Structure formats: structure tokens, C-alpha cells
Amino acid sequence: MILEIENLKKSFDNQEVLKDINLNVDKGEVICILGSSGSGKSTLLRCINLLNNYDGGTILFNGKNILDENVNELRSKIGMVFQSFNLFNNLNVLKNCMVGQIKVLKKSKEEAKAKALETLDLVGMSDFVNKNVKQLSGGQKQRVAIARSLCMAPDIILFDEPTSALDPEMVGEVLNVIKKVKDTGVTMIIVTHEMQFAKEVSSRVVFMNDGVILEDRPTKDFFENPANDRTREFLKRYLENN
Ligand SMILES: Nc1ncnc2c1ncn2[C@@H]1O[C@H](COP(=O)(O)OP(=O)(O)OP(=O)(O)O)[C@@H](O)[C@H]1O
Ligand SMILES: [Mg+2]
Question: Which residues contact 149 (CB under 8 A, 6 or more apart)?
């Protein structure tokens, strides 16, 4: 088991946002987390990446408590891709993909550059290596952010609504890149509202509602035979809006 989350609890002020979350992830799995706004999806990902602290429970990564790990090292092994890209705007595309490798993984410039170029090729951004981040479209930025994360050779990548900030015509290119990343065998947890994509890419769906995991099921079962009224309502609402 690459990730074991046990009895995770998190409150903001008096609001309990994660209520006793239990979730196990095997190496190589691709899991989509679905659920309505405010259900706690981002908070869960942020706890796994130590961007949020938590009030109770444990998160084990490769059998070790993440609270005992060095934060930068942990984040190189558990990558995160954000809705809003979070690139370094003062660095060009290539440097964005090199800096973490040099600073955290202690690689030489040459090694870091070779890995960056290879990874930018995978995401279809080879022609943009010397471009400034500000010159890129949203879809291109997100592809660079995915490459930057992959350059650290993470064991897991967490995606938090990677296409939600994009113009509709750019959603497809980013989703296709994520499918290619899946082919590298890296474990992925993807929070998304793209149901068709979730169906295609994931083997398991975790459905969150009000701080609780209501369903944790193989993807096909989840969509064909949702167990819960709340899930049926969620899927129905989605079908009506698309
Ligand atoms: N830093 C914070 N301070 C206070 N409350 C917060 C903070 N971050 C999140 N919350 C609250 O926690 C709840 C869960 O938020 P979270 O962002 O995890 O939901 P989500 O499922 O990711 O929603 P969305 O689909 O809109 O992104 C919400 O009620 C939110 O207002
Ligand atoms: Mg969110």
C-alpha cells in the first residue's frame, strides 16, 4: 500500500470538514475523487501534501507517517497539480522544470535539463522550452505544471481540478496529457468534475459528501450502480447540466 489514510479529521474553526476519512491507495492505482463543492476534496489532498495540518488520524506514505518526513522531500515524492497552475512566473518553461530537481533532488544542471526536456516532450511542450510562463495559454501552463511535477519522479501525483480554470477548448489537451501520465505507471489521485474523463481514466471512484466518503467503488460500479441516494442525485444533476 503506497498510501494509508486512517481516521483523518480536520476542522476549520468550528466546521468539521473531514470527518473520519479512511482511504487506502495501492501503487499504480488511478483514483478519481468526485463530490459537490465544499465536500472536502481539496482539503483531503492538501492534508496528504502537508499543505494543511490535520486534527486527528494518520497518513502513512510507503508505511511511514508523513508527519515524520521532511516536507520538501515528501512533496517531491507526492507531487501536486493545482487548478491555478502555481508555476514560477519569473522563470521560463525549462527552468520551471529544473529548479526542484536541482534544489531538492540535488541533481546537476545537465541531468536536470535532460529530464526536463524529456518530460516537456511527453506533455507536448518541446517547442516552448524557452518561453516565459506569461506567454502561455492556460492549457499550456497546466501541461508545464504537470511536467514540472513529473520531473521530480514522484510516487504519487495529486491533481486538484486540473482543468477547472481552463477555457473549454483547452480541457481536452490537458486531460489527454493526464492519460499519457497514467501510462508511465505513476499512482494518481485526481479530483475532477469531468465525469467522462473519470470514467475513462480511473479504476476507482471515491465519492465525498459533507466531509465523509460515501462511496469507494470500482469506477464501472460507481457509474452503473450508485449505491447511495446522494450519489444518484449528484450524477443526475451532472447529466442534466451536460
Ligand atoms: N483555509 C480555510 N479556512 C476556512 N475554511 C476552509 C478553508 N479551506 C476550506 N475551508 C472550508 O472547508 C470546506 C471544504 O472545502 P474544500 O475546499 O476542501 O472543498 P472542495 O470539495 O474542494 O470544494 P470545491 O469543489 O468547491 O473545490 C468548505 O466549507 C470550505 O469553505
Ligand atoms: Mg476543491
Answer: 79, 80, 81, 157
Count of domains forming the chain: 1
Residue 25's alpha-carbon distances to 29, 90, 124, 205, in angstroms, are 7, 36, 29, 12
End-to-end CA distance of the chain: 36
Ligand 1, CB within 6 Å, residue ranges: 12, 17, 35, 37-43
- What residue owns the CA closest to ligand 1's atom 16? 40
Amino acid at 161: E
What span, in angstroms and rounded, lies between the C-alpha atoms of 110 and 92? Answer: 17
CATH number assigned to the domain comprising residue 206: 3.40.50.300
Could you tell me which of 94, 5, 100, 87 has the C-alpha nearest to residue 54?
Answer: 5
CA of 13 to the centre of ligand 1 (A): 12
State how far Cα 53 lies from the chain centre: 18
Each residue's pLDDT tens digit, 40-53: 999 999 999 999 99
Cell numbers that stand for 69 in this block: 518526513
pTM: 0.96
Which structural domain range is residue 120 located in?
A: 3-241
- Which ligand is located closest to the Cα atom of residue 38? 1
Tens of pLDDT, residues 148-167: 999 999 999 999 999 999 99
